[in-house]
């Protein structure tokens, strides 16, 4: 739908007349009619006034405008991922060719990032096969942004498992700034959850325990007023992992086992097995470190 059509749809759905709306925002009824018919444009300030008067958020407005779907542009990332899981490489290669041609015409950085994602998927998301220059390009882009918006978060989300650990940790500062500033925007919630817990997993796997504490504290702060049961269970698990690293081994194991009981009770057997293996790997590292210290 066009902007005017959405305004008319919202207005009529709220049982507001054109005259009521015009009076409320200081415009004439004929001008409102011309906006709704697409004959006149509208400033962002006036659009904001209309939405506030109608008690509709910007997110709702653009969701309706896009026929009750997320932004068609940003949704292309999800579409490519879905095609990957559907094993439809032929369609992914078509998208790769199309976005490459479009990028050459208009230089939209979104298209460049989508092209690189297609390349990575074409190479099985295997960092040993992916063109290193592409990952460097994505890295340089993200690190050059002082203030991340939703696009940067989506890029981080899509490429996080391809970054070297030290690179992922470097991006933590911007991620945490974004999480704190936009935590009231539910649009980020699932994506931030994925990134937070992947960073935590990465930090324990590669020994970046300094970042483990920073990311865990940020994750706990982000979810402190939220009753997301699965995320709260993962927080208990990673609290236990951090306890183990900080030499409170028995306390840490107990917390991890609490999380395991919940996973098993909920029927998440594969998740339980995955995190149990991660715990055993960490305990092995701690044991080897203690043995080395005794030898010295």
UniProtKB/TrEMBL annotation:
Q: Which residues form the HTH cro/C1-type domain?
A: 7-61
The superkingdom listed in its UniProt entry is Bacteria
Q: Pfam families annotated for this entry?
A: HTH_3, Rgg_C
InterPro entries (alphabetical): Cro/C1-type_HTH, HTH-type_regulator_Rgg, Lambda_DNA-bd_dom_sf, Transcription_activator_Rgg_C
Q: Which GO terms describe its molecular function?
A: DNA binding
Q: What is this protein called?
A: Rgg/GadR/MutR family transcriptional activator
Q: What is the organism lineage in this UniProt record?
A: Bacteria, Bacillati, Bacillota, Bacilli, Bacillales
Coiled-coil portions: none
Origin species: Ureibacillus chungkukjangi
Q: Which Gene3D superfamilies match?
A: 1.25.40.400, lambda repressor-like DNA-binding domains
């Amino acid at each position: 739908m066009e902007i005017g059509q959405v305004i008319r749809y919202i207005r009529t759905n709220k049982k507001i007349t054109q005259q009521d709306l015009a009076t409320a925002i200081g415009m004439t009824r004929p001008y409102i009619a011309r906006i709704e018919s697409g004959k006149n444009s509208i400033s962002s300030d006036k659009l904001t006034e209309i939405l506030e008067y109608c008690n509709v958020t910007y997110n709702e407005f653009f969701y309706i405008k896009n026929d009750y779907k997320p932004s068609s542009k940003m949704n292309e990332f999800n579409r490519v991922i879905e095609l990957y899981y559907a094993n439809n490489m032929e369609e992914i290669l078509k998208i790769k060719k199309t976005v490459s041609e479009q990028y050459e015409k208009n230089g939209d950085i979104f298209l460049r990032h989508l092209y690189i994602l297609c390349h990575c998927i074409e190479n099985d998301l295997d960092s040993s096969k992916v063109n290193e220059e592409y990952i460097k390009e994505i890295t340089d882009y993200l690190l050059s942004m002082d203030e991340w918006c939703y696009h940067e978060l989506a890029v981080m989300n899509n490429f996080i498992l391809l970054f070297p650990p030290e690179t992922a940790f470097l991006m933590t500062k911007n991620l945490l700034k974004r999480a704190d500033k936009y935590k009231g925007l539910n649009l980020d919630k699932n994506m931030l959850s994925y990134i937070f817990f992947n960073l935590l997993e990465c930090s324990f796997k590669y020994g970046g325990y300094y970042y483990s504490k920073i990311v865990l504290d940020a994750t706990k702060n982000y979810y402190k007023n939220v009753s997301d049961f699965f995320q709260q269970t993962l927080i208990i698990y990673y609290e236990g992992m951090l306890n183990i690293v900080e030499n409170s081994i028995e306390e840490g194991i107990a917390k991890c086992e609490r999380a395991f009981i919940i996973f098993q009770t909920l029927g998440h057997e594969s998740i339980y097995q995955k995190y149990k293996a991660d715990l055993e790997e960490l305990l092995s590292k701690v044991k080897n470190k203690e043995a080395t210290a005794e030898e010295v």
